[in-house]
Model the fold of this input.
Amino acid sequence: MRNLKAEQAALLMQIVSDHYPNQQILHITDCKTDLHDYLFKMTKERGFEYDLRHTVDTPPSVTGAEAHPAFTVEPLDLKRRAYNKHARLYEYVFVTLDEESIAESLEEMLKKIFRLMKNSGVLVFLLKKRGTLDGKIDKLLEEGYFVAVNHIDIFDDFDVVNARKMHGWGAYSVGF
Done:
């Protein structure tokens, strides 16, 4: 597991607004970074809901999980028809998967994520710098009706790509 630098992770946490109470955050991860620890701490402090979905056999260990009543951790099969099992919509979706997992089905993944996000929700990918998805992800995000695609240079080894879900436009193109 790669440990992120605390000061850099703190900058990433600033993406999440603290102006609104009871926000919902989804994190889809292969547990190769410790971003889930930073998200857990931030959501616990702010009283936000945090759903951690992992794609590995062994769930990540989170210290103090019992003290965060709005925290859940469950396995996720990326090939599932839909990523959420309930009608919850998320303001923020963080994705920390290896490039191979993302590249394998990026277009389908974006459609599934689009369905579970609130309008103008924020999607954040943590990708390896100078990886194979550099030019491809921007185009697919825009085609998938995500707008304001930005690359943020916070981490030494990762590129942060964030985008907002367009306000319901294109819903029929993504399978609604």
